[in-house]
Amino acid sequence: MIWNEEFETLPREALEALQLKRLKNLVERVYAAVPYYRKKMEEAGVGPNDIRDIRDLSKLPFTTKEDLRLNYPFGLFAVPFEQVVRIHASSGTTGKPTVVGYTRHDIESWAELMARTLSCGGAHKGDVVHNAYGYGLFTGGLGAHYGAERLGAAVIPISGGNSKRQIMIMQDFGSTVLMCTPSYALNLADVMKEMGVDPKTLKLRVGLFGAEPWSEKMREEIEKRLNIKAIDIFGLSEVMGPGVASECIEEKHGLHVFEDYFIPEIIDPETYKPVPHGQKGELVFTTLTKEAFPVIRYRTKDISRIIAEPCSCGRSFHRIERITGRTDDMLIIRGVNVFPSQIEHVLMSIEGVEPHYLIIVDRQGSLDVMEVQVEVSEDIFSDEVKVLEKLGRRIEREIKDLLGTTCKVKLVEPKTIQRSEGKAKRVIDNRKL
Amino acid sequence: MKLEQISIFLENKSGRLADVADILAKAGVNIRALALADTTDFGILRLIVNDTEKAKKVLKDNGFTVGKTEVVGVEVADRPGGLAEILTVMRDSGINVEYMYAFVQKSGGNAIIIFRFDELEKAIETLRKAGIRILRGEEIYSL
How many distinct structural domains can be found in chain A? Predict the structure, then answer.
């Protein structure tokens, strides 16, 4: 079912006219309200009057995570602060998170977008939405929650963790739609097996999975083991949160971008030039309606391509291919974005610890595990086991405090971690997605 | 009254202990006593050698993290209750033993035990008052 027939099936010409109108308005708003954006536009020699055609978008400067960091926490907000009704945050590249804000209108838009997403996955009024995305600063929990309510479904705000209880509630409350990360879905399947619960006895019909990369192989496994249809959804907090793009249950091939709200572009990450439809590159988003935290040409560092062919579901929106990689070294561990630079930040803040480290990511069963190897220098070495173990635990705790995800610290002999020759190898990812 | 002990950080991988022994052998360093503390991920090798500085240098040159700690070598009567006597004295003085290990060789008819205390000076004072013989560095290194 299509949630908003009028907008989701707009002929391309009408859609582009709407995008242009909204883009002009966006550039005017941002130029007037955010000195940082105005300065960047002036440096690029472009202003609100230069946007006459939708293709003029490419004249505008890009926005990166670095711009967000420089304006921490609220420097890029484009409305007076008293209009902000919600603040979320995601991982930054160092010790500080990336902060985003929403006006009441933004929250309304977001609910609409997530209602569309749920409809894309075949959910409807009367469904019982089991929302196991984390509630909190992370956009997943509340984003999905408001969308499910907008849809008219009964939402169970169960958040993440405590899998046995999740399964009991699925059984007792008759959950029909599951929302969580794909790896957590597999974890639930593992726990069901342990508990002797046959998924066929549950009412679960479909799952909407996002917040981390996954593959067709994982989809097959989830569908088989949970006896549901699995849908890939996409979003990032800098752009909105979940609700930026979604697969339709009809095709399950490529994610429809809600183009009346967001303009997707694919650029060559080396030359920054837009590439033709169908060609792979870095995914870039411009938000058309967002008030509190609009972004212009935000570089996601995700690699995808645009599928411009019409889709059998009837939506006129272009699709993006499932994310196939990153142009930077960001890792996604149990749905949490992790930058190696954040780990480095923690290590450097502990006296005597050298910045030689290696992150090893693996998948044990269906859960991601992260090990951080740290070299033992003379400054931190002790002849007592307890002193070294305490140091390891301290690093683990500080990383958890900053990232919100657990890791295991392993102390290793000096000079065993490869030294940087140009770009040091900081990450070994052994997960087979 | 204090002894110098070197400690070496070892990852739990096969062959590392052999590497240490080999490096010391080639440098002509004689190991007088040793103890290995191990966890699931790493180990700490503690050594009393006949030439502490040399041992430290060759191990560091070979990329090991090496530390130096002061410990106490105590003569313990080689009979039932010999060790208990010393530990009772330390307990009554509120001094903690971080770890301890025994020497292979004997001093006279007595056993030698290496102690790592939390309060070194206080421990030496307490042992002396209790009339327990503490071995000097030269006595130990040249055994």
Answer: 2
